[in-house]
Design brief:
The chain is of the alpha/beta class. The protein has ten helices and ten strands.
């Protein structure tokens, strides 16, 4: 097991910030590898040494062996590694496409092993609705809610365990991303689901930022993290401004750099270290100049790690 320092702790940049189109307006998935390289180079220029492809950008699980090798060459040329690969809106229990997404998830695990990735992140959140797509921020409208049917829940547990078995067989792990109204939509639900999966190669991704941005009541962040950090093996970490006016019932939320939002991450990161967290981070930010804010969040995170590891 690698013992990281504040300087080399893997902190990945999510490549979804570039969207899914190349410079000519075509799908980045099918682009010339040079298009990938240009975007990797911009991330490296901002000081990142790690990235997460996140399949909103390039679906590494759908690349041919030759193009996956070209992808890896681009990583090497830009001195980037991929400590984690995240999937987005491809639930293995999607009512229409669950079987398709399960097969895809297995391909992502194989691609992750080829890229020397440590962990693959899966979730149960599904495609955004028309109302979400029309909103200023998609999280301001309600989205998919997982079924209360025990058979669907059992299928979710069984399929995630299947993915964990596969991951373990190729020497990596999987993680489950916390997301509202899903089977891992609260700290308590996430821990219970993980216990139901009951596999050593499956952990949690405590993305509490997905909840703090919602215009609804919010369990204190420190309490949520206290429950999930003992099981955390990949950490999507982001922050938001948040306010609530009890006189009117109005909420406000807006993306924020990591050190300037509602959640005070300094004691929470310290607590994670105390509890043995040693996995990668992926910083996130929506809106404005995302890459600038992501770089600032990375700097903040390294400063906190330096103080807490001293």
């Amino acid at each position: 097991m690698t013992t990281y320092t504040a300087e080399n702790w893997p902190i990945a940049c999510p490549m979804l910030l570039f969207g899914n189109l190349d410079s000519k307006g075509g799908p980045i998935q099918d682009a010339d590898p040079e298009e990938w390289n240009k975007q990797m180079a911009e991330v490296a220029f901002e000081g990142f040494t790690e990235m997460d492809p996140l399949d909103v950008w390039v679906r590494v699980g759908d690349l041919s062996p030759q193009r996956l090798d070209a992808f890896k060459q681009g990583m090497t040329a830009n001195k980037l590694t991929v400590p984690g690969i995240s999937t987005s809106r491809k639930s293995v229990v999607d009512a229409e496409r669950g079987d398709e997404y399960l097969a895809y998830s297995h391909r992502v695990i194989d691609a992750a092993a080829a890229l020397d990735t440590k962990v693959v992140s899966f979730g149960f959140f599904q495609a955004t609705t028309p109302a979400q797509n029309a909103a200023t921020w998609f999280w301001l409208e309600d989205g998919h809610k997982d079924s209360a049917d025990p058979e669907v829940y059992h299928a979710a547990v069984t399929r995630i365990r299947e993915l964990a078995e596969h991951a373990q067989s190729v020497g990596i792990e999987i993680t489950l991303e916390m997301y509202e109204d899903t089977y891992v939509g609260s700290a308590d639900d996430a821990v219970q689901f993980l216990k139901d999966v009951d596999h050593p190669a499956c952990g949690l991704n405590p993305d509490v930022g997905n909840l703090v941005r919602l215009h609804r009541p919010f369990e204190p962040a420190a309490e949520q993290f206290e429950k999930m950090l003992p099981y955390t093996n990949y950490w999507h970490i982001k922050n938001y401004l948040r306010d609530y006016d009890p006189a009117t019932g109005a909420y406000f939320s807006n993306p924020s750099p990591l050190g300037g939002g509602y959640i005070n991450y300094r004691p929470i990161i310290a607590r994670g270290l105390e509890l043995g967290f040693d996995g990668p981070f992926m910083v996130e930010h929506y809106g404005s100049d995302s890459l600038f804010n992501l770089a600032e969040s990375r700097k903040y995170l390294r400063r906190v790690l330096a103080a807490k590891l001293a």
